[in-house]
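Kindly inspect this one:
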Amino acid sequence: MSAPTIILNNGKTIPQIGLGTSPLNDKEVVPLVVAAIEAGYRHIDTAYRYNNEKGVGQGIRDSGIDRESLFVTTKLDGQFQGNDRAIGGLDESLRRLGLEYVDLLLIHWPLPQRNEYISTWKTFEKLLEAGKARSIGLSNFKPAHIEKLLAKSTIRPAINQIQLNPRITRPEQRSYNGEQGIITEAWSPLGAGNDLLENPTLATIAAKYGKTPGQVVLRWHIELGIVAIPRSANPRRIAQNIDIFDFALTSDEIAAISSLDTGDEQGVDSDKTGH
């Protein structure tokens, strides 16, 4: 089982399902990366702030998979915002991962109160040019943040990774990303911390297809063209999360799942939070 890929605006491709690795530590994450790769994952998502890049790299090596077959994402947080600070940050991430490059490098949070994400993006453009990142993008950016960035940048972000699930569907952000040629990627796609997977609508659809509510939710992301990064510390659940390509939802089912939205205010607000 492997995930389909989406073409980014720079011509690179990204697998539509990836393994989220927060909040696992270096020791915990190693066997789970191996299990994910064995289950068919080719996309692994980490971050400097997760403090597990060393373990992610070890898991990749232990899996025996060819590096070119994998798509690896990391993110740099606020300590690396500002002129050229990201250069040292990515060098440290690559050292911990044991890799020569990452497939995708993201600004973890915009931190608009600091007003440094544009200078940080210019550094990301240098890292792309140097080949240390093959694609660059954003995480938790709102349209207003992106608009400001696009006005002063030469390279368009490939991805915007945001909190997104059927409880927090963020249609305006998805629409804006699409208009700008930026792929939307979902963190917390299964709605951690809310009652999403207990919803009877999902239970009914899941029973129809012989799937779990979680698998139905991830299929919803696929149908909408969203990249999803589910996380789990359970190898069985990790395998379930990628076993979603043998069924398809109807348009009515997609609409019913989308109607579970409780509004953006139920999620994080990146004008007020971040690190």
The chain has one domain: 5-266. The radius of gyration is 18 Å. Strands lie at 5-7, 13-15, 19-20, 43-45, 71-76, 104-107, 136-139, 159-163, 183-187, 227-229.
